[in-house]
Fold this protein.
Amino acid sequence: MNIKELQNILEKSSEEQLLFDEPHVSLRCEENNIKKENVVHILLKEPHKLTHFIEDRPQVYKLYFKISERRQLKIIIDLFQLPLIMIRTVKILDRKLYKNTRIVKLKKRRF
């Protein structure tokens, strides 16, 4: 599957076809300060913001939507029961959080 096919599936879907893995999705939305309505809106009304996706397992996809220059919305969905789309989890990725991380090299010790 390519990105255009996935965008077409999302565009043709409706809110009635979306299922949520509750209570997991509600907890993740609360942790990331985003409402489920916003997630549904981005998923169905703004599929052009989909920048890339990863097929994690067969029929399970990690979707990455561009929210702003520094932020992305990661949504994990499965398409096991097409036309139904199961939303597994939601996460906001923010580059500010990862900006100051460094790799520390350890010295090898001789015994």
The mean pLDDT is 88. The helical segments are 3-12, 24-31, 36-45, 95-98. The two ends are 53 Å apart (CA to CA).
